[in-house]
TrEMBL record:
The keyword Chloroplast does not apply. The keyword Cytoplasm does not apply. SUPFAM superfamilies: 6-phosphogluconate dehydrogenase C-terminal domain-like, NAD(P)-binding Rossmann-fold domains. Pathway: Lipid metabolism; butanoate metabolism. NAD(+) binds at G13, G14, G15, R16, M17, G18, D36, E94, K99, S121, N145, K275. Residues 188-283 form the 3-hydroxyacyl-CoA dehydrogenase C-terminal domain. Belongs to the 3-hydroxyacyl-CoA dehydrogenase family. The lineage of its organism: Bacteria, Bacillati, Actinomycetota, Actinomycetes, Micrococcales. The record marks H142 as: Important for catalytic activity. PANTHER family: 3-HYDROXYACYL-COA DEHYDROGENASE FAMILY PROTEIN, 3-HYDROXYBUTYRYL-COA DEHYDROGENASE. This is 3-hydroxyacyl-CoA dehydrogenase family protein. InterPro entries: 3-OHacyl-CoA_DH (IPR022694), 3-OHacyl-CoA_DH_NAD-bd (IPR006176), 3HC_DH_C (IPR006108), 6-PGluconate_DH-like_C_sf (IPR008927), 6PGD_dom2 (IPR013328), NAD(P)-bd_dom_sf (IPR036291).
Length: 306
């Protein structure tokens, strides 16, 4: 296990998650190379990381200067730049075809022994491992959004991931001052599976009239010290996103993850949560959310609502 980050870290796809991963490894002392699909995307990725670095310096999260940190940041479009990396984290969009092609391209330039990690939030590690030549050095590193504010990384080991690869990934997570949980490859890993289970039950309770949205959320924030209640969290993540994950888990794990009719009705009505201004709550610009009136929609589901 390593208490240090690798000297060189590669990040494929410098979007929301990739730029966060790059920022975390830069702060921990690595030289970080981001590769994105074209010059514009690579430039945007670099700008995102530079902004995040400047914020960290302003907040006093690091004693290094922004200039020192960004001197170790590179962004481009050719995966050949990953050749010196001991770790590459893939963070391209959640699409099996895109990811398998990208992983193969990266593996072609990596030195034997380098670890190739994927930040997939739902795709099976074993499924992706079927497309790489060295599955023993392939592992999931599931970062959470936003990366700088999140304390957790799920290290997801596939059937072929070696103990050494798992230990190195766990050590690197600790070196960027986050906590690793090691999870065997399974649909939804640990975090999404538990989070969705609570979220779906909260929607069913709302539809059955057990309690209103604010009371259901308070039961978890005050009763269980969750930072956000399950219905408000569903609004923040996006009802459409959570519906997609629930459908996937229902296919993989059975009917206990079947999405409630109320969730489907809200998505069909375009009530997707904060991003559309309305979900289980109404989200006024700059104001505090208030529980939405779901009477009409709940009746569409054929279930009682209060
Ligand atoms: N957003 C989240 O909350 C979250 C949380 C955990 C994990 N994830 C996972 O992280 C991954 C990335 O998600 P995101 O939200 O950062 O997406 P994003 O759309 O913000 O970023 C994707 C990046 O990949 C780049 N890209 C696309 N095709 C590419 C290619 N062929 N080669 C190189 N770069 C390419 C895009 O230009 C973009 O910069 C997904 O697998 C997602 O499931 C997302």
């Amino acid at each position: 296990m390593s208490g240090q980050v690798p000297e060189h870290v590669g990040v494929l796809g410098g979007g929301r998650m990739g730029s966060g991963v790059a920022h975390a490894f830069l702060l921990a002392g690595a030289t970080v190379t981001i590769v994105d699909r074209d010059d514009a995307a690579a430039g945007a990725a670099r700008d995102r990381v530079v902004r995040a670095v400047e914020q960290s310096v302003a907040r006093g999260t690091t004693t290094q200067t922004a200039a020192t940190l960004t001197a170790r940041l590179h962004a481009g479009t050719d995966v050949v730049a990953f050749a010196p990396a001991r770790l590459v984290v893939e963070a391209v969009p959640e699409d099996v075809g895109l990811k398998t092609a990208a992983l193969r391209r990266v593996e072609d330039v990596l030195a034997p022994g380098a670890v190739l990690a994927t930040n997939t939030s739902s795709i099976s590690i074993d499924l992706l491992a079927d497309h790489v030549r060295r599955p023993e050095t392939f592992v999931g590193m599931h970062f959470f959004n936003p990366v700088p504010a999140s304390a957790l990384v799920e290290v997801v080991r596939g059937a072929a991931t070696s103990d050494e690869t798992t230990d190195r990934a766990r050590g690197w997570v600790e070196a960027i001052r986050k906590t690793a949980v090691v999870v065997n490859d399974a649909p939804g890993f640990a975090s999404s599976r538990l989070g969705i289970a609570i979220g779906l039950e909260a929607v069913r309770m709302l539809a059955e009239g057990v309690a209103g949205a604010a009371d259901i959320d308070a039961a978890m924030t005050l009763g269980y010290k969750h930072p956000v209640g399950p219905l408000q969290l569903t609004d923040l993540v996006g009802l459409d996103v959570r519906l997609g994950i629930a459908e996937y888990l229902a296919r993989e794990l059975g009917p206990r993850f079947e999405p409630p009719a109320l969730l489907r009705a809200l998505v069909a009505a375009g009530h997707l949560g904060r991003k559309s201004g309305r979900g289980f709550y109404v989200w006024p610009d700059g104001g505090a959310p208030t529980p939405a009136d779901l009477t009409g929609l709940a009746s569409l589901t054929g279930q009682a609502s209060r």
